[in-house]
Amino acid sequence: MGAQLRVYKRRIQAVTATKKITKAMEMIAASRIVKAQRKVAASMPYATELTRAVTAVATGSNTNHPLTTEAESPARAAVLLLTSDRGLAGGYSSNAIKAAERLRERLAAEGKEVDTYIVGRKGVAYYGFRERKVSQSWTGFTDSPEYSDAKKIAEPLIESIQKDTAEGGVDELHIVFTEFVSMMTQNAVDGRMLPLSLDQVAEESNEKGEILPLFDFEPSAEDVLDALLPRYVESRIYNALLQAAASEHAARRRAMKSATDNAGDLIKSLSRLANAARQAEITQEISEIVGGAGALADASAGSDK
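The structure corresponding to this sequence follows.
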């Protein structure tokens, strides 16, 4: 019985140590969410104004720029998938991967080949385990991305959409990331970045009551688009990276809170079992003492006779 009690005590100590770790990770994730939210909010004005500028140039000129013109028969698309470098975040990365798989199936059904670009070790590991081709990958910054990271990611994507498909280029550029809605809600979403849907942007502007101004462009509208559209792609990727980082921290905080609560419940359960084992051990010892005392009393009575 004593051996069983020692087992329970060792398990309680182990679970208690785990609970301290998960609680610390929960608090760290909670503090990082606030910083990530601030970064998301700070990036929005730049992205909004840049989108307006690009739309104004594209709608205010007659130029057919490769980054704003729909291909007649799109045959190839690039998909950028944002996942996490680290685990312990619940279903964060798996939900993003599932969304990318659904997008891939939809594009394949439209007759398009898909080139996959991945951010985060979890996505890289998923595709590597299945021996699926990845055009390019980036790791090491998913929990705290910088604008330089977005620029580094955007370069090969912009280069690929500027190439002809016969030379390995693509006709469309899509992104899959986890949108931060609230501390409790994060949704894996996909969207098309390029070609830029001018009708959709104009629609959104009309709904907000905004008027897109008309401009004269020097040296030309095409040169202005050449300068603005790479910045547009970088800002979209940067905003997605920031939202994904905030979502990752929120998912990790929620997962660690659940782990901490479960550890507390397990400690209570093990404590009850340990108490029951201790009580059984005490009862057995009392029984042995009573039995021994009875035996001595019987022996003494026999010697008196």
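Residues 41 and 239 are 9 Å apart (CA to CA).
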